From TrEMBL:
It is a multi-pass membrane protein. InterPro entries: Na/ntran_symport, SNS_sf, YocR/YhdH-like. The lineage of its organism: Archaea, Methanobacteriati, Methanobacteriota, Stenosarchaea group, Halobacteria. This is Sodium-dependent transporter. One of its GO terms (cellular component) is membrane. It comes from Natronosalvus hydrolyticus. NCBIfam families: Na_transp (NF037979). The chain crosses the membrane at residues 12-34, 46-69, 89-108, 148-166, 178-199, 219-245, 257-279, 318-338, 350-373, 380-398, 418-442.
């Protein structure tokens, strides 16, 4: 027990595995299975993968430890944590997180709704092999009342789990969901390996063309930075919030490495599933946009033997992964209301969840709006939140942060110094450049 005296009966994780699984559950989601492949496709294949992997290790991992340290030290939600630690304007940085979380979850739930719908389509009628037919089917799924209905269904499940609280709701849910995601992904990658298009897909996905990096770096850098933050659930306080429910002083660096490793592995394996399927069906992976991955995968499933079943399993897995991520997004805002305004969990969850449903309506109604929300939140807000936090921790409270990181690790003097300097300079530089390019490109 550290400094949780002032927050009388605050929730906490029951087990170490509970925290790690919840953080893995938050990290692994639509970002890995939907967003990652379409970013790879849009940004030139293996070249993007390479930069992305670099950013995850050199920027994402240290940035995750920043959030962990702040959460565990304060035992508070992001707004409260920053208000406690920061003077002047720094004390308000938590609000950037809350705003970002709100926007992301609103459209995240819409996309998750599509995955539920696509699961049902597979089980009911199978998928349509014809490209044009698959496209018009997607437009039905992703707009108007159909999309709104499944957005509502998804939000209702998220609300129910978060309302149950940390131990009974979130921790229990992720213990079932995360192992399911891992097993199904590996099974599907093995299956994809047997497809005719596999070897072309592997060379597209795995052997980088450095010319592509040289000519497209102004779009690859912000896309890779945004994707690294999005996929690791950084830049909006989710990891602050989850670490705030830690009571014992455990090795945060080790936990962080496990979480980053899992998330990266699932994204990587998703590429090994998606690209062979696309290449086998003769679909060009460079087709940009948030819908293309659905259209082309559905068409590919329509083409494969037993494609309805494989497709339904695939989309159900995506829905499950989205669920454990959406839970963490909602928890950020709910924890703020509980901590700072003494609102009870159920009321807070219903109010915020209802608000999110409404905010998601434009994205559900029209795909163009969804793409705008996604680009704005991902390449601008997340990166901005991460940048502000890196500046604050690296330059304003470095000693406090290293001291907190040391707990549960023991003496880490040189590592702690390395970590602080990583945050102070390289992380800040990359994020500033990415943010500038992201704003220019938006
Ligand atoms: N990391 C999640 C994914 O990859 O799908 C998305 C996400 C969850 C982003 C929670 C941010 C967050 F706070
Ligand atoms: Na992720």
């Amino acid at each position: 027990m550290n400094n949780s005296v002032d927050t009388v009966s605050r929730d906490a994780w029951a087990t170490r595995a509970g925290f790690i699984l919840a953080a893995v559950g938050s990290a692994v989601g639509l970002g890995n299975i939907w967003r990652f492949p379409f970013q790879v496709g849009q940004e030139g294949g293996a070249a993007f993968l390479l930069i992305y992997l670099l950013f995850v290790a050199a920027i994402g991992f240290p940035a995750m430890l920043v959030e962990f340290v702040i959460g565990r030290y304060t035992n508070r939600n992001p707004v409260g944590a920053l208000a406690q630690l920061g003077r002047g304007l720094w004390g308000y940085v938590g609000w950037v997180f809350i705003a970002t979380g709100f926007i992301i979850l609103s459209y995240y739930s819409v996309v998750a709704g599509w995955t539920i719908r696509y699961t049902i389509i597979g089980l009911q009628d199978g998928y349509l092999a014809d490209g044009a037919a698959a496209e018009s089917q997607f437009l039905d799924v992703a707009s108007g009342l159909d999309a709104i209905f499944f957005h509502a269904v998804f939000m209702a499940v998220v609300i129910a789990i978060v309302a149950l609280g940390i131990k009974r709701g979130i921790e229990l849910a992720v213990k079932l969901l995360v192992p399911a995601i891992i097993v199904i992904s590996l099974g599907m990658a093995l299956y994809a390996f047997t497809l005719a298009g596999a070897s072309d897909a592997y060379s597209y996905y795995l052997s980088p063309d450095f010319g592509v990096i040289a000519s497209n770096w102004t779009s690859i850098l912000p896309a890779a930075a945004g994707q690294a933050f999005f996929t690791l659930s950084l830049g909006m306080g989710a990891m602050i919030t989850y670490a705030s429910y830690l009571e014992e002083d455990r090795n945060l660096a080790e936990d962080g490495a496990i979480i980053v490793g899992f998330d990266t592995a699932i994204a990587f394996v998703t590429g090994l599933i998606v690209f062979p399927i696309l290449f086998t069906a003769g679909v060009d992976p460079a087709d940009p946009g948030p819908g293309a991955i659905f259209v082309s995968l559905a068409a590919a499933f329509g083409d494969l033997t037993l494609g309805w079943l494989i497709g339904a399993v695939f989309f159900a897995t995506v829905a499950i992964a989205a669920l454990s991520s959406a839970i963490s997004l909602l928890e950020v805002v709910v924890s703020y209301l509980i901590d700072e305004h003494d609102i009870d969990r159920v009321t807070a969850t219903l109010a915020i969840g209802g608000g999110l449903f409404v905010l998601g309506l434009p994205s559900a109604w029209d795909l163009v709006l969804l793409d705008l929300f996604d680009g704005f939140a991902d390449q601008i807000l997340l990166v901005l939140g991460g940048l502000l936090l890196a500046l604050f921790v690296g330059w304003k409270i470095p000693d406090l942060a290293v001291g907190e990181l040391k707990k549960g690790i023991g003496p880490i003097d040189s590592w702690g110094t390395l970590w602080v300097w990583l945050i102070r300079v390289p992380v800040v530089i990359v994020l500033v450049i990415s943010l500038a390019l992201g704003i220019l490109g938006y």
